[in-house]
Amino acid sequence: MQVAMQVALLERQSLTQLQEMWQKYFDTPPISKNKEFYISRLAYRIQELAYGGLSSHQQQVIANMHVPSRSHNNLPPTGTRIVREYLGVDHVVVVLPDGFEFNGMKYQTLSAVAKKITGRKISGRYFFGLDKQEK
User: Fold this and answer.
1) Which contiguous run of DSSP H or E holds residue 89?
2) What is the mean pLDDT of residues 3-8?
3) Is the domain of 59 the same as that of 92?
4) Dihedral angle of Cα 124, 135, 76, 94, to the nearest 10 degrees
5) What's the CA gap between 27 and 40, in Å, rounded?
6) Is residue 129 part of a domain?
7) 13-46: per-residue pLDDT in tens?
8) Sheet of strand 99-102, all strands in order from the earlier edge strand to the far edge
9) CA 73, CA 60: separation in Å to the nearest integer?
C-alpha cells in the first residue's frame, strides 16, 4: 500500500486500532488515550520507515540548535518587550537570553530594573505585572 494512503487511513482507525498499530510500529505498550497523539506519531513513523529517517548531519544540526525556552521562573521568551507605566512614564524592558535591557543598560534581574525605576527594592515580577498572568 502506498505510504500516502497508509497515512490517510489513520484518521479512520479507532483508538484501539491505533493503539495496536503503536504496539506494532514502536514495540512498546500504548501510552496515551488521545487519538490525535497516535495519528501524528504513527504517520511520522510510517513515513520514516518508507523513506528513511533524518540523516546523521540533520540529527546533529537539530541537536546543536538553541531553542529559546522559558526559564525556570516563567519569564517571557527572549526578545519580549515588557512595558510598565510608572508615574506617567512608560518604561520598556527587553528580555535577553541572560538578563534584561533597560535604557541601554543590562541588568541581571527584573527586580534590579524595578529598583532602578522606583528607587526601592521591589519584586520585578510584581512590579511588571507578570504574576497576574499566571493566575
Assistant:
1) strand 89-96
2) 94
3) no
4) -40
5) 17
6) yes
7) 999 999 999 999 999 998 888 898 999 999 999 9
8) 81-86, 89-96, 99-102, 105-107
9) 29
Q: How far apart are CA 94 and CA 110, in angstroms?
A: 10
Tell me, yes or no, whether 74 lies in a domain: no
- Residues counted in the chain: 135
Q: What confidence tens digit (pLDDT) does each residue in 57-107 have? A: 988 888 888 655 544 567 788 889 999 999 999 999 999 988 999 999 999
Residue 132 cell numbers, joined: 497576574
How many helices (H) and strands (E) would you count in the chain? 7, 4
Q: What's the pLDDT at 43?
A: 94
* Grid coordinates belonging to 13: 482507525
Which grid coordinates are listed for 85? Answer: 507605566
- Cell digits of residue 120: 526601592
Residue pair 100/94 in contact (Cβ under 8 Å)? The answer is: yes
Tell me whether residue 126 is in a domain: yes
CA-based nearest residue to 110, from 70, 87, 82: 82
